[in-house]
Amino acid sequence: MPAIVQVRDLTKRYASGFTALDKVNLDIEEGEIIALLGPNGAGKTTLISTICGITVPTSGSVSVGGHDVVRDFRAARSLIGLVPQEINLEPFEKVFNTVSFTRGLFGKRRDDAFIEKVLAQLSLLDKKDSTARQLSGGMRRRVLIAKALAHEPRVLFLDEPTAGVDVELRKDMWEVVAELKKSGVTIILTTHYIEEAEAIADRIGVINKGRILLVEDKAALMKRMGRKHLVIELVDPVTTLPSGLEQYGLQRSEDGQHLTYDYDTTGERTGITRLLADLQAAGIKMRDLRTAESSLEEIFVGLVKENA
User: Fold this and answer.
1) What CATH number should be reported for the domain holding residue 295?
2) Eight-state DSSP code of residue 215
């Protein structure tokens, strides 16, 4: 089965000569959650806007559900729900009417039962008669998602969906996204919160300077590119490291109570056994050892730095 979203050699170049997207290729499978990570100005929003038919590409092609977003715009756009970063709702209109109106914009028949189902899914049913101005920021963002789902799209774009939302509401939003995935909706997420991608995404895409650096299964990416850290707690703090230990690249904590050693999990040898022996030979007494894996954030920062 072909991918529900297919991007081929997509380029967007402005009259000024600035290239926002440079021959981007991307396949998004039906029913998955993919997180697009990238620094400001990397091309995330331009990519979403082009897939949604808001921005016209300079060259290349995009299809959604087999429909070209330029030649067959209406059919392609009918399959897409877009949740923008900015909250822009009519302040005095009731939630139910706001969501129902959006359904009508896509030529869908009135279906009050379906609108209530969407509102219930987003924990908004008890707010259906409230106006947008009466809602909290987190609830307003849920209304944006409800509007995007009103016409029953197969693909949902979430552009920074938890920007400005507190930690508790952010986690609630993650649960909402997980439930949407269960219902078969394909979700493309852009976020500045790396932990968000780490928590809910199936695949991670990294974009920088208009180019896709990689798209990979999250677990495989963290296994392939991740490193582990061995943290050594000392009996007595050290102010300087004895000579002969420089080869290990040890990092000393400010209080001198801990040493951290980074090693590659894919290497044939970690060097840990030799390190511990050399520490003991140098008279450094160890109280405890623990390991920690590198986070997705560390991997992301490393990738961007490499391609700066």
Assistant:
1) 3.30.70
2) E
Distance CA 161, CA 31 (A): 19
Cβ-proximal residues to 135 (8 Å cutoff; 6+ apart), any chain = 95, 127, 143
Q: Is residue 172 predicted with pLDDT exceeding 60?
A: yes
| Residue 92: predicted pLDDT | 95
pLDDT of residue 306: 61
CATH number of domain containing 55: 3.40.50.300
Looking at the structure of the chain, the number of domains it has is 2
Q: Are residues 105 and 72 in the same domain?
A: yes
Residue 89 sits in the same domain as residue 212: yes
Q: What percent of the chain has pLDDT over 70?
A: 88
Contacts of 193 (CB under 8 A, 6+ apart): 162, 170
Higher per-residue confidence, 48 vs 208: 48
What contacts 249, CB < 8 A, 6 or more positions away? Answer: 261, 262
